[in-house]
Amino acid sequence: NSVFKINSLADVLDRQHNFADYHIQMDAFTGYNIYDTVVLKVYGALQGAGAESEIDVNTHNTVNIGQGVKLLNPIGNVEIGAHTRGYATADASVTIGAAIGVAGGVTDVDLNTNNTITIGDNVEIESFDSTKILAGRSADYLSGNLLSANALTNVYNYTAIPIDAAKRANAYASVVNNISIGSADTDSGINVSSVRDIILEANKGTLV
To answer: What is the CA radius of gyration of the chain?
Structure first.
């Protein structure tokens, strides 16, 4: 999980005037690469096999800009992003050699990510270039959500009397992207402006 927070009434002003790097950039990001494998081999007259692999990942990336904050960049961009890039593979392999055998397997992969950007009341965000508020993308707009979930089950039942059981392989991936600006009141006093573009985006990304 990652959290980027600016407390209430803070002022963030780019006074450096370094044209090589002129962004005010805030990014909440989580990345992971998981591989889990289970191998089971059994031999004999009567065998009841098994093997199970499970991966469960929940990530939360949050950018929270409190009430009365001022983000002002007189020469460049103001960029805010939150996203996840994750890869997970669960692999269960079962080999049985017996007169009578009960097979196995079972792999489950469950990936969930929540990207949230919250902007409080009376916040002022102003840029000379572009203002970007991106849930599901990096602040620089170059990288988006990517969740890759793979569940593999390989069962080899070399028996005279095979009894099937399990052999399950499930992979799930879900993404929630949310941008919340101000309270439910109509007069929240928020000002978001730029000389060029204002980009508000909740991006699903890629689920594999």
So the answer is: 25
